[in-house]
Fold:
Amino acid sequence: MTIALLLAIATFIIIIQAAIPYLLKPTIVFGVTIPNGYTKNEKLLFYKKMYASIVFIIGILTITAFMIWAMNAKPLEEKMMISGVAIQFAILILSMALYFVFHAKTSKLKTENQWGANLKQVRLVDIAARTADEMLPFTIFLLPMVITIGLIIYTTIHYPSLPELIPTHWGIDGQPDAFTEKTPFSAIALLLILLIMQGMMVGINELTKRSGIKIQANRKKKSRAQQLAFRKYSSWLLFATALLLTILFAFLQLMTIHENIGGTAIVLALPIAFIIIIFGMTAVYAFKVGQGGARLDVQITEEEVEGITNFDDDQYWKLGVIYVNKDDPSIFIEKRFGVGWTVNFGNPISYLIFFGPLLLILGISLYL
Amino acid sequence: MFIEIDMDSEVPIYIQLMNGLIEAIANGTLQTGNTLPSVRALASDLGINMHTVNKTYRELEKKGLVQIIPKSGTIVQQRTVDEAKLQQFTHLIRPMMAELLANGLTEEQVHQLSSDIMISIKEGDQ
Structure:
């Protein structure tokens, strides 16, 4: 069971990591802005292929070796778990290292060939885009929070009948495997963590909504449609995650209050189903929508405008991954390498958003 | 409607943005009573400083095209033309007109030019 799950997660990570160059806008290659007209350069396409092949092949070899080892040596569950997680990290580190290599190569290629030197750099805004934005309103995100608050009240009512030991950690099979003494705080700690995560998601939704709708200079209608769709689907994915998380945590909490609530089948199925659904949704989102909606098929025909290109903001992207721009009021900004959002470290609020909830959750865990 | 900002241009960004918004009012994309995008939204979409957008909005207010109402937004105003404004426009256009004529354009060419520009503004950047 554990090995199947570890393999599934590792395979998922390998596939997504290997596919990243193909999930991005063609105008940003390894974190470098490539002006239109050069995006199909042979060397660039070769770099993308190289990156994808290396990540994929090394990844598959590693998990095959892991599988053979696990089958033959039959290690203890714990040892297997640690090695499995180590492999996942190794793949991530490998792809990151490769990214930096190709980022440098691509930057060099761009400077050597002086791509875009004869093109006018423009920034574009659609003054009507905001009215067409279909990101979910924050009120919808408050619904799961209401459930959590309801559960806190419910737990308080049932406090006397709660067991003396409150579970604080659950195994992959849905069974609690770590406990702490019953106190009013430990009884609701899980729900508090859930509440923080839900609050974080409301914040992410609101701040991504306020972030810029970036329109590409020479294909404005198409990129506008892709941007709006990307924003909409991002927001839906976030809400679905919030909802699933609420269901999982609510169930764990109810199990603590009423020990015999779920049959063993449900207990076993719930965390697995949770992981499968989350990963499935993410995969569909990454491959169907793509970064910034790059993979969405939009039924708009328009002529590409010649002679202009997007404003080259590479100077604000440290190493092509960390965005620092004091002038840009956006706090969340679309990632350059990867699907989703990253924060603008030019804004102090970003540090709060990045570390605040983490510290809070860590604080609760340590206090227990 | 799309507004394009040329980052290599010598014309300051706030003026380019202002010209774009004025065209949007001229061709009816923004009508009387409409709210302009919030300063933050416009600055985020363009990835520029909020002060720049603020400056644009204040300039538009000075021109009497919009009214900035704190906390509720920037609203396109009912347009009125009085004697004073007409005179102001004359002052604005006169040197340009003179420059055209000085460059040898005929009266007909000037008319043609102005009607071409008018059409392209009305069509907008759909």
Notes: Chain A has a mean pLDDT of 90.
